[in-house]
């Protein structure tokens, strides 16, 4: 009773008791609540900013550095990127000057392209690829079968395989060594087109040149003249196969000598009409030069062979 | 509108206006505040209980986010490094092999890498690594740039040597009536054996004669034996001579390009019939010119021609 509150009503000149309405309760509860929320937030803020544990100190400073160093690092990277880009341009122009043809860019998918890929398109191409793969596999099986049939290799004939010039004329096979392939190429001296009967394999002087198959050295010719094949040898492999290695430096075999597949027969040089140290390798089958890449199969896997074949098809400048 | 609030005082039996003194107000405010604070504290404790070390987590999250950004940066550096490595590889394995230069030693490529001035604060490892890698790559790019400069200079020399080599026929195959691929000792029309140190190309008078490589006309005069003759210097040890011309198309001192017309076929000097006598000299000695225009033939045809050139034939001069 003592704590009731009253209000004076001037209309009926009475003191009326003030009732606590729902509204009043809501207002006070809301007041308390909002004030508490404010304080709660303030407390958390205080904890977040001012209560520093060692972990937090470390993280704070690291984050600070990570954030602030990003800009300068990126700026440096951009400079670097630009320089490398310039280098790549210069290198490409060098390539064009050396080989008279722009480099074929490898088909590599960039991240940006990958992100832009449409899922449906992707699935469709995967399905297509799978179908092609199946077809090719079937074809390969068929081809293998026929190949086997055609070869009709009796067990005792396996030894004869070594007589085929199937190896690479250098000790270590790398696609970048193949500078110029078989067919019409640009002549390095007068830049006209001419028939290039072999493949050119660039390699530093003094590297080993190996026999690509078992056979007999049928020709050893040395020439100081800065034209033609220069120092060159021919190896007769039988079965109509003759291989020729030209522009050699030192020749390590005699005429009539028998050589095994992979035996070192000479050193790389620059004799004859050559603009770079390299081996000019020819395969002559029944008197006609054929593309040596068709025969190479020793010590190469499918990827390497594919690389070599793409490089061999480029109509660029030869080295002699 | 503030209404006055009264309270009934039973002692005086009156309604007295309720006055809020500052003390009362302060007390009430304090009470309100304490209640709020209590609730807030309870909430904060509950929050901390429910999400322990949430503030560290927040920082950790930001840290992760930043680390990801740096990882992207590192990735980009990797890409650039790979690109640079490809250029270096091509430089070492392709260009240097082909231009007959030694590959740059790894020690040269890595020379002076490292040695960045220490930062005032210790930087996070990833930042430090990034800076180190960028500066290393920067350095390698510099070396590579110098290397490419060297290669370009070397290539320029080589290109000059390739272009100046007497590598084509001095007379077009279409104009040629007969090629005397004779080089060495052979029977002279005068009736005696003598060394013949050049090649004879029979062609009608006035057929253009082409410079077989880039070079300079060192001499062009009339001599009793050679008639109107042009001497060309191709540098790199090579020079050529074109004799029995009917007239000149160039002057002494002219710098000519391969394929440029320098004169016309004639029958001047000690000659029997319209033809061009062509000589190639390497370091002062005549060499068989057939070797130097093999490029119009395939290698095999060329080897055959060399064989033919060994056989004797009558010379035209």
The description of the largest β-sheet of chain A is: 10 strands, antiparallel
Poorly predicted sequence stretches spanning 5 or more consecutive residues of chain B: 309-317
The count of helical stretches of chain A stands at 5
Strand residue content of chain B: 15-25%
Low-confidence stretches of chain A: none
Calculate the mean pLDDT score of chain A and round it.
84
Structural class of chain B: alpha+beta
Number of strands of chain B: 14
Kindly state the percentage of residues in helix of chain A.
25-40%
Order of helices and strands of chain A: EEHHHHEEEEEEEEEEEEH
Q: Report the sheet with the most strands of chain B, covering strand number, pairing sense and barrel closure.
A: 10 strands, antiparallel
Beta-strand segment tally of chain A: 14
Mean pLDDT of chain B: 80
Envelope shape of chain A: elongated
Coarse shape of chain B: rod-shaped
Based on secondary structure, the structural category of chain A is alpha+beta
How would you describe this protein?
The complex is a heterodimer of chains A (320) and B (317). With 320 residues, chain A is of the alpha+beta class. Chain A contains five helices and 14 strands. In chain A, strands 3, 6, 7, 8, 9, 10, 11, 12, 13 and 14 form a ten-stranded antiparallel β-sheet that branches. The radius of gyration of chain A is 41 Å and the shape is elongated. Chain A starts with a strand and ends in a 7-residue tail after the last helix. Chain B is of the alpha+beta class. Residues 309-317 of chain B have low confidence and may be disordered. Chain B is 41% helix and 23% strand. Chain B contains five helices and 14 strands. The longest helix of chain B is centred in the N-terminal third of the chain and has 45 residues, at 54-98. The radius of gyration of chain B is 47 Å and the shape is rod-shaped. In chain B, strands 3, 6, 7, 8, 9, 10, 11, 12, 13 and 14 form a ten-stranded antiparallel β-sheet that branches. The chains are: A alpha+beta (320), B alpha+beta (317). The interface between A and B is large, with 88 and 91 residues.
């Amino acid at each position: 009773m003592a704590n009731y509150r009253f209000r004076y009503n001037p209309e009926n000149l009475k003191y009326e008791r003030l009732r606590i309405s729902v509204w009043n309760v809501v207002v006070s509860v809301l007041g308390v609540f909002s004030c508490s929320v404010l304080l709660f937030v303030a407390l958390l803020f205080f904890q977040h900013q001012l209560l520093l544990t060692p972990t937090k100190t470390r993280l704070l400073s690291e984050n600070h550095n990570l954030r602030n160093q990003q800009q300068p690092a990126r700026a440096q990277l951009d400079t670097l990127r630009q320089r490398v880009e310039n280098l790549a341009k210069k290198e490409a122009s060098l390539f064009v000057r050396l080989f008279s043809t722009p480099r074929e860019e490898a088909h590599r998918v960039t991240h940006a392209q990958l992100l832009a890929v449409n899922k449906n398109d992707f699935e469709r191409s995967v399905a297509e690829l799978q179908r092609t793969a199946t077809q090719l596999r079937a074809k390969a099986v068929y081809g293998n079968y026929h190949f086997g049939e055609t070869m009709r290799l009796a067990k005792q004939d396996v030894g004869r395989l070594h007589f085929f010039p199937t190896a690479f004329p250098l000790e270590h096979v790398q696609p970048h060594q193949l500078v110029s392939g078989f067919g019409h190429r640009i002549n390095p001296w007068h830049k006209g087109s001419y028939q290039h009967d072999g493949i050119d394999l660039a390699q530093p002087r003094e590297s080993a040149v190996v026999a690509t198959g078992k056979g007999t050295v049928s020709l050893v010719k040395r020439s100081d003249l800065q034209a033609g094949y220069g120092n060159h040898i021919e190896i007769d492999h039988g079965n109509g196969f003759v291989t020729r290695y030209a522009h050699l430096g030192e020749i390590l075999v005699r005429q009539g000598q028998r050589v095994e597949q992979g035996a070192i027969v000479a050193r790389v040089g620059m004799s004859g009409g050559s603009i770079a140290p390299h081996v000019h390798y020819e395969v002559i089958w029944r008197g006609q030069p054929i593309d040596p890449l068709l025969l190479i199969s020793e010590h190469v896997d499918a990827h390497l062979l594919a690389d070599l074949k793409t490089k061999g098809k480029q109509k660029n400048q030869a080295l002699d | 509108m503030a209404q006055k609030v009264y309270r009934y005082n039973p002692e005086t039996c009156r309604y007295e206006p309720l006055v809020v003194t500052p003390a009362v107000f302060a007390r009430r405010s304090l009470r309100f505040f304490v209640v709020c604070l209590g609730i807030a504290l309870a909430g904060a404790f509950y929050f901390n209980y429910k999400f322990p070390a949430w503030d560290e987590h927040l920082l950790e999250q930001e840290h992760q986010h930043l680390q990801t950004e740096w990882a992207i940066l590192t990735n980009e550096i990797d890409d650039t490094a790979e690109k640079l490595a490809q250029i270096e590889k091509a430089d070492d394995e392709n260009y240097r092999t082909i231009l007959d230069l030694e590959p740059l030693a790894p020690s040269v490529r890595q020379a002076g890498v490292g040695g960045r001035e220490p930062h005032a604060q210790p930087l996070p490892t990833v930042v430090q690594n990034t800076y180190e890698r960028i500066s290393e790559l920067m350095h390698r790019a510099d070396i590579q740039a110098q290397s490419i400069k060297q290669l370009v200079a070397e290539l320029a020399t080589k290109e000059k040597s390739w272009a100046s080599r007497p590598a084509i026929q001095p007379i077009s195959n279409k104009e040629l009536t007969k090629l005397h691929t004779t080089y060495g000792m052979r029977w002279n029309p005068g009736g005696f054996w003598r060394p013949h140190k050049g090649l004879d190309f029979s062609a009608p008078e006035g057929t253009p004669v082409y410079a077989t490589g880039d070079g300079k006309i060192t001499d062009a005069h009339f001599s009793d034996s050679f008639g109107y003759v042009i001497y060309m210097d191709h540098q790199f040890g090579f020079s050529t001579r074109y004799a029995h011309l009917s007239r000149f198309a160039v002057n002494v001192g002219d710098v000519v390009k391969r394929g440029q017309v320098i004169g016309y076929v004639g029958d001047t000097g000690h000659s029997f019939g319209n033809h061009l006598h062509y000589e190639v000299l390497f370091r002062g000695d005549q060499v068989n010119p057939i070797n130097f225009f093999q490029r119009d033939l395939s290698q095999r045809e060329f080897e055959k021609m060399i064989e033919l050139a060994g056989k004797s034939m009558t010379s035209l001069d």
